[in-house]
Amino acid sequence: MASYSVLLLPGSLRAGSFTTALLKAAGELLPDDIEGELVDLIRPLPYYDGDLDHDPLPQSVVEMRARVAAADGIIVSTPEYNGAVPGGLKNWVDWATRPFQAHAMMNKLVVVLGASPSPKGAINAVEYLTKVFGYLGARVAGESVRFASVGDFVAEDGKVDPSIIDQLRPFVDSLVAEVRNPAAR
Question: For the domain that residue 17 is a member of, what is the CATH number?
Fold first, then answer.
């Protein structure tokens, strides 16, 4: 039985997403004492609207915030759309980080994984999420990881090239060290 839980949050809604394939591969690298759960916390949410952000909250928001609060950490994967994060992921960030300074992401351990078919490797999306999470009070652990030209390393069936697994391992190991460190909470 796992002692810790990590949410694996895909930022892409596309079936066959490269970032989701990488996220699954990262989850497979977690040790037995850390349960990695791939969850779609984005699709059920309404568009963020401050007029909806009061009691009674939409049920999907209540459930998402509870899942985030209960997790020991989160791995967020993001593609890059038009030089930024996808709209659905940005919407999740808006819901997950309210109310300001008293939200589910406050002091939550989070790491960011990005990938893009382009040679830039989702640099803007990863930098944006890392900056926003830090600004809003989450604990961004270790270095983010980005993969450029990701289509060359992820097959259509979602299998990830072993060279990518080797690059994911230190990323996952830094998350594991932080999750297991009670002093960091």
Answer: 3.40.50.360
